[in-house]
Design goal:
The complex is a heterodimer of chains A (606) and B (492).
Chain A lengths: L13 H4 L6 E11 L3 E11 L12 E4 L7 H6 L2 E10 L4 H4 L13 E10 L2 H19 L24 H4 L5 E9 L6 H9 L15 H4 L4 E14 L2 E15 H9 L33 E4 H5 L15 E4 L7 E6 L6 E2 L7 E3 L6 E7 L14 E7 L5 E9 L7 E9 L3 E14 L5 E5 L11 E5 L8 E9 L3 E11 L15 E3 L3 E5 L5 E6 L3 E3 L8 H25 L5 H10 L2 H21 L1
Parallel strand pairs in A: 1-10
Antiparallel strand pairs in A: 1-2, 2-8, 4-5, 4-7, 5-6, 7-8, 9-14, 10-13, 11-12, 11-14, 15-16, 16-22, 17-21, 17-24, 18-19, 18-22, 20-21, 23-26, 24-25
Chain B lengths: L13 H30 L8 H14 L1 E8 L7 H20 L5 E8 L8 E7 L7 E4 L5 E6 L1 H5 L3 H13 L1 H8 L15 E10 L6 E2 L1 H11 L1 H4 L3 E9 L12 E3 L2 E4 L1 H4 L19 E8 L7 E3 L6 E4 L3 E5 L7 E2 L1 H19 L13 H33 L7 H22 L3 H19 L2 H4 L6 H28 L1
Parallel strand pairs in B: 1-2, 1-3, 3-5, 6-8, 6-11, 7-15, 10-12, 11-14
Antiparallel strand pairs in B: 4-5, 9-10, 13-14
Helix pairs in contact in B: 1-15, 2-11, 3-5, 7-10, 11-12, 11-13, 12-13
Classes of the chains: A alpha+beta (606), B alpha/beta (492).
Organism (chain A): Komagataella pastoris (Yeast)
GO biological process, one term (chain A): attachment of GPI anchor to protein
InterPro entries (chain A): PIG-T
Chain lengths: 606, 492
């Protein structure tokens, strides 16, 4: 049966007011060769959603064209206005690779990190939505985000501030709350890439996303996957989500190529060793040289795939760009695997636009891989480490270095440490060292003169099992100076059930965030420290059972002794001996036999 | 061998013996009266008291507590008001007769009330006189709850007006509902989704390839605004649309039957057509029911794709949604005219999936509005039954598994479920059907929470055997010692 509604004439009021803006989708891939035969590959996908309307409760419709429907309802249900997710692995070597791609705005620390701006009427409501949000995301991204709760969540005040423009354009109904949490222990693997690809309209089937393959992406030296959703508005009625998905990865080309040749690592045969000819070298001696600078690598080597035709859904043609030193690097675009070659290395920053359904492979070729574009130096370097070796207390030390000779650096240091690290902030000491002369000065936090280097700080102490300690320091580092911050903490005891599996491995302390700001308080660079591994006193987990069993045994023994003492008859030793002489097993047996035979004789007599 | 007197063990004095027995009895009683209960108390699971009695009475009597009637409003000039009481009498007697043939499961009435209807949810009967002596007739408006009865000269003269009205009400409007109450028709078709007061509809445009496509979502909105209006009083509806590219079927192209240059989807294929893992249809945000409607445009190499034995090239998936396969699209654009016939099919599938009875002559009226009303009223009773069944199962479960714990909030949920059931019945009896439906949903929700409480289930994994194993070093020796002593005391 068909419901025929065709002859209905109703003038819809909504359709005239809201002209629904359709979403758009763009993608781009960048290659940047780095020193020591490393290569940075950066994927960038940008999706703009259809018009969203949160406050119109009468509207029951929401439309998704390129923006993923798996994400949209989650954002709307939890009133999330901005969402950032980071999945990263490895350690960024800034001495070798320079500053982070996109000034660190798309790179996370080791593990998973998530922060979101949630609109709610009050904090309790916002906390509920935050938990709801991370639980939903956990299902979507196959990560343990559902383990996030208030105990590891903070509300950053200076770092990670929202970047969406709806805050200025739209009068919000509720208040905005910023939540942030991290799971440094989370391993990042193929399961996280699949949902990432599913968010894209092209589903990894064509365009640049057809290159992404979990085995290759996560086999890199360093990789960072980021998902950022912002809400931006043209005016009050036209708001949309901007979804940016990025993957940055560093591959060592020599390693990739040798792994392709020998999937299982084998020692280099003698005749292939590159020995230093100026030193002694024969069948037994070889002083190895650095890797050769001859490189010829293509996408199939790096990603295991080639580009499967143009992306049909994008609003602009997809681009592949290479940032190479044009004198020595040659970049070739091979269409359909024939060299209908387009050598586009003559100009600086050459880009290739993909069109047509033909497959495309890009090859990078040079005999001087040591010549790359000049590296951009990061404005600050940071390293963090745990100090002390006892089971009950320890210390944390953070080293900053300003490499610039002329510019001072203003930055915010954000750190959230778990509740079982009981921080003593009064023990904080700042040591300033001149990089050239090595002269240093120590300023304890109680000293007034620290204000010129630490103008402001925010600290929310931890509460047992309720919230972490949250530290945000605004710091100023003069040119050519290094700064060291150090403070002490106590390690608290955990309850039996609070230990994670494999507790003896230690407890990861999430990476701290360094945000460099300029004079106008605009973020210019962002970096994260490595996670720290804290060892806590860890019990043997069969202990509770052992305690119960041992106590039970002792109690049973005591009871047995005392009970026997009070219920048994006390006799002298002689009496006891006499008793046993009368009752030796032999005599007992004889008595028994006598008794039985007496019975028999009695029967016979009857 | 000479024996000194001190070496001989004298028989134990009676006083000492009885003292020893006394000691044994007191130790034994301390163990039995204090030790054992204390051990049980400190190691046992918490089991709150379920209101077993109350639930049992509810399950046996809740249907007899329902006395609902459906009001029909009729406006008549004063001299004709006698018709109302006459018709009411006739209605009552007819219903009584029906009930005597096949007894109703609940107490069910129809009342005729004089005056204009009080709200949009009530039914209005209008009597019109026809010029034509044989021109009696009936018109049930498909879009509002209005029934127009046209009387002819013949009917009026023969005083058949009450009979005519009662026939219209019982045979044309409410026949289906009455038959269900009589137990003549089973309402469960197997297609319908479990009912909740929230429902999400997704309309999906799936393409087998990656060529961009555009569709007119505003005309979809206009269409659905009308089609869903009948449900709005009862349901909180949300509609989402999406476009998905590279949606490959779960079926290998080579296994499809080719007939007349067409790829045929056989009935066997249909069950595996939906690619549940890849198509992004699952929703992680809500546990509310979702119905998915899919327009599938196959990629070039599997076109044209036909569903075997289907007129509209569509099929229905029970409790899940509907699929239409579209082979011809022009300019990669789904226009208004393409969309309308598709949406007609989706609308009929939607009715089926929600459980609205189909229009069959002399069983259900054509008006979708009235059919939706009938379904909703029947849902109330169904929901109440489900909630009561849930509570009964909880009792059975707690009786079966003696090692699960029953936390206090289970009891809270049980109590609030019982309260909702009672309130729902009250509202039903006072003709507040919308509120009654909401409360019956609440009852299901609460009883589900009570039954599926996770804290209850996880305790199953700490069985009694574990407890015994841990405490054996204490209990074992103590039992041995006291038992041996017990034997000795008995022997003497």
């Amino acid at each position: 049966m068909l419901q025929n509604w065709g002859f209905w004439l109703i003038v819809s009021q909504f359709s005239q007011v809201l002209c629904n803006q359709k979403g758009s989708f763009k993608e781009r891939l960048d290659f940047t060769p780095l020193p020591k035969n490393n290569l940075l590959a950066s994927f960038n996908f940008e999706i703009e959603s259809d018009t969203v309307n949160w406050y119109d409760t009468s509207s029951t419709y929401s439309h998704y064209t390129v923006f993923p429907k798996s994400l949209g309802p989650i954002l709307e249900d939890t009133k999330t206005r901005e969402l950032h997710l980071r999945f990263s692995q490895g350690w960024w070597d800034s001495e070798l690779w320079g500053s982070l791609p996109q000034n660190g705005s798309q790179s996370g620390g080791t593990g998973v990190e998530v922060w979101a701006v949630i609109e709610a009427n009050n904090k309790t409501e916002a906390e509920g939505e935050w938990i709801h949000l991370v639980n939903s995301l956990s299902g979507l991204f196959c990560a343990s985000l559902n383990f996030i709760d208030n105990v590891i969540t903070t509300n950053p005040v200076h770092s990670l501030q929202p970047t969406s423009n709806f805050i200025n354009k739209l009068p919000t109904e509720g208040e905005l709350f910023l939540f942030r949490s991290a799971l440094p222990r989370e391993p990042i693997c193929t399961e996280n890439l699949t949902p990432f690809l599913d968010l894209l309209p092209s589903k990894g089937k064509n365009g640049l996303s057809s290159l992404l393959n979990g085995h290759k992406v996560y086999d890199s030296q360093w990789n960072s996957m980021s998902i950022d959703v912002e809400t931006n508005c043209d005016d009050e009625l036209n708001c949309h989500y901007d979804l940016k998905q990025n993957i940055h990865m560093i591959v060592n080309t020599k390693r990739v190529l040798s792994k392709l040749k020998n999937p299982l690592p084998v020692p280099t045969p003698g005749n292939e060793l590159r020995c230093d000819r100026t030193k002694k070298h024969d069948a037994y001696y070889c002083f190895p040289l650095v890797d050769s600078t001859d490189i010829k690598i293509d996408m199939r080597d790096i990603f295991g795939n080639i580009i499967n035709g143009e992306n049909t859904v994008t609003t602009e043609k997809s681009k592949v760009c290479a940032h190479t030193a044009p004198e020595v690097w040659k970049v070739l675009a091979k269409v359909n695997d024939y060299e209908s070659v387009f050598a586009y290395s003559e100009v600086q920053d050459p880009c290739y636009e993909i069109s047509g359904t033909d497959t495309l492979n890009i090859e990078l070729k040079t005999d001087r891989s040591d010549i790359t574009l000049p590296l951009k130096e990061p404005p600050i370097t940071v390293s963090r480490s745990l100090t002390g070796y006892s089971q009950d207390s320890g210390g944390l030390r953070i080293d900053f270095r300003n490499p610039s000779e002329t510019e001072e650096v203003n930055f915010i240091y954000y750190q959230s440490t778990p509740w079982y690290m009981k921080t003593y902030l009064h023990t904080l000491k700042m040591t300033l060292t001149n990089n050239t002369s090595g002269e240093s000065v120590v300023i304890p936090i109680t000293d007034r003169s620290i204000v010129s280097y630490l103008p402001e700080f925010y600290y929310e102490p931890m509460v047992d099992r309720i919230r972490p300690s949250h530290l945000e320091l605004e710091l100023v580092l003069p040119p050519n100076f290094s700064m060291r911050l150090a403070y002490k903490f106590d390690k608290l005891m955990l309850k039996y059930a609070e230990y994670p599996p494999d507790a003896n491995h230690g407890f990861e302390i999430e990476p701290a965030i360094v945000t460099v700001v300029d004079k106008f308080n605009k973020v210019t660079y962002e970096a994260r420290t490595t996670p720290a591994l804290l060892t806590l006193p860890t019990p043997d987990f069969s202990m509770p059972y052992n305690v119960i069993i041992l106590t039970s045994t002792v109690m049973a023994l005591a009871f047995g002794g005392i009970f026997n003492l009070i219920v048994k008859r006390v006799v002298t030793e002689e009496q006891a001996e006499y008793y046993y002489q009368q009752n030796t097993p032999k005599l007992k047996l004889r008595r028994l036999i006598a008794r039985i035979s007496a019975k028999f004789q009695k029967k016979k007599a009857d | 061998m000479s024996e000194s007197k001190s070496e001989i063990l004298p028989p134990e004095p009676e006083k000492e013996r009885s003292l020893r027995t006394l000691i044994f009895i007191s130790v034994f009683s301390v163990i039995a009266l204090i030790g054992v209960p204390l051990w049980f108390l400190t190691t046992s699971l918490y089991r709150a008291e379920l209101p077993v009695e109350e639930i049992n009475t509810l399950s046996s009597t809740f249907k007899s507590q329902i006395h609902y009637d459906i009001p029909f409003y009729i406006e008549l000039p004063k001299p004709m008001r006698y018709l109302i009481s006459e018709t009411q009498e006739l209605l009552d007697s007819k219903l009584a007769k029906l009930s005597s043939e096949h007894p109703f499961d609940v107490d069910y009435h129809v009342s005729l009330i004089s005056g204009p209807k009080k709200s949009d949810l009530d039914y209005q009967i209008e009597l019109v006189n026809s010029e034509d002596p044989n021109g009696e007739g009936l018109f049930i408006s498909p879009y509002e709850r209005r029934i127009v009865i046209r009387n002819s000269e013949n009917v009026v003269v023969n005083k058949l007006v009450p009979d005519f009205i009662s026939r219209v009400i019982l045979d044309e409007v409410l026949k289906y509902e009455i038959s269900v109450h009589q137990g003549l028709i089973a309402t469960n078709s197997g297609f319908e989704i479990p009912f909740k007061d929230k429902l999400k509809l997704t309309f999906n445009l799936f393409k087998g390839d990656g060529l961009p496509i555009d569709w007119d979502t505003s005309s979809l909105e206009r269409y659905l605004d009308r089609a869903l209006e009948n449900f709005r009083t009862y349901l909180d509806l949300r509609v989402e649309t999406q476009v998905i590219y590279f949606a490959s079927m779960n079926i290998n192209k080579d296994t499809l039957i080719v007939e007349d240059n067409q790829y045929l989807l056989t009935e066997r294929n249909l069950s595996s057509f939906i690619n549940y893992s890849d198509w992004g249809l699952e929703d992680s945000t809500t546990t509310d029911p979702t119905l998915n409607f899919i327009i599938y445009i196959p990629s070039e190499d599997t076109r044209p794709l036909k569903v075997q034995n289907s007129e509209h090239n569509s099929f229905l998936i029970a409790q899940y949604g509907g699929v239409i396969i579209l082979n011809d699209i022009v300019d990669n654009q789904l226009s208004d005219t393409d969309l309308m016939p598709i949406l007609d099919i989706f609308a009929s599938q939607l009715y089926k999936l929600i459980g609205v009875p189909e229009h069959i002559d002399s069983l259900t009226p054509k008006s979708p509005q009235i059919r939706v009303d009938i379904m909703m009223r029947l849902k109330i009773i169904k929901n109440l039954q489900l909630a009561v069944d849930n509570l009964e199962s909880l009792i059975t479960l707690s009786k079966r598994l003696s090692t699960i714990n029953i936390p206090d909030f289970t009891i809270e949920h049980v109590n609030s479920a019982i309260e909702s059931i009672n309130q729902s019945i009250e509202k039903l009896n006072s003709r507040e059907f919308v509120d009654s439906l909401k409360l019956s949903n609440e009852a299901i929700k609460e009883s589900d929470r009570a039954f599926f409480s996770e804290n209850m289930v996880q305790q199953v994994y700490f069985p009694d055997e574990h407890k015994m194993a841990v405490y054996l070093p204490l209990i074992g020796p103590i039992i041995m010692i006291t038992f041996l002593m017990f034997l000795r005391v008995m022997k003497k």
